[in-house]
Design a protein that fits this description.
Elements (H helix, E strand, L loop, with lengths): L1 H18 L28 E4 L5 E4 L2 H5 L3 H6 L2 E5 L6 E3 L4 E4 L11 E4 L2 H11 L2 E4 H7 L12
Antiparallel strand pairs: 1-2, 1-3, 3-4, 5-6, 5-7
Bound molecules: zinc ion.
Zinc ion binds next to loops.
């Protein structure tokens, strides 16, 4: 019986990733590396992920690192996920609201925070003198290089 459960969970591990193509990824915080900069992904409010059409999942410590993927990858991605800045959980990047400001201390210094509601994004933008953008504008206008590095890094 135990063996059957083991084999079943192995099958789920092998093929489950395909079935979960539409669900947000699971990140083992502090244990997995960013697909672009290779830093540990340990700061949930700034993390991002991309699910490719073949089921490949790429994870990032900073939304800015996701933006450094090739345009071809970004356009052809099956799903683009970003963590909520103001609460726990993931958002569909194509539906989220973003605040970009150099006063937002993200892990790699891109200064991008994601929100579910426009009003919440506007509130932070006011406080940090940032701009509120939708995903398409983030792709066009957000910095591809860090605005500043976090202190001590
Ligand atoms: Zn990174």
């Amino acid at each position: 019986m135990k063996q059957a459960i083991f084999i079943a969970s192995l099958l789920i591990a092998l093929f489950g990733c395909h079935a979960r193509r539409d669900e947000p990824p699971i990140v083992r915080w502090g244990e997995e590396n960013c697909a672009v900069c290779r830093m540990l992904i340990s700061d949930p409010p700034f993390a991002a992920a991309m699910v490719m059409r073949d089921g490949e999942v790429r994870k990032y410590d900073d939304v800015g690192c996701l933006l450094n993927e090739s345009n071809q990858r970004l356009v052809n991605a099956h799903r683009l996920w970003v963590r909520r800045y103001d609460a726990d959980g993931w958002l569909d990047a194509r539906r989220a609201w973003f605040v970009v400001s150099q006063r937002i201390a993200s892990p790699m210094g891109y200064g991008i925070a994601a929100f579910a509601r426009k009003a919440d994004a506007e509130r932070l933008a006011k406080r940090v003198e940032g701009v509120v953008l939708k995903w398409d504008d983030v792709l066009r206008r957000a910095p591809r290089k860090p605005l500043r590095r976090r202190e001590g890094q």
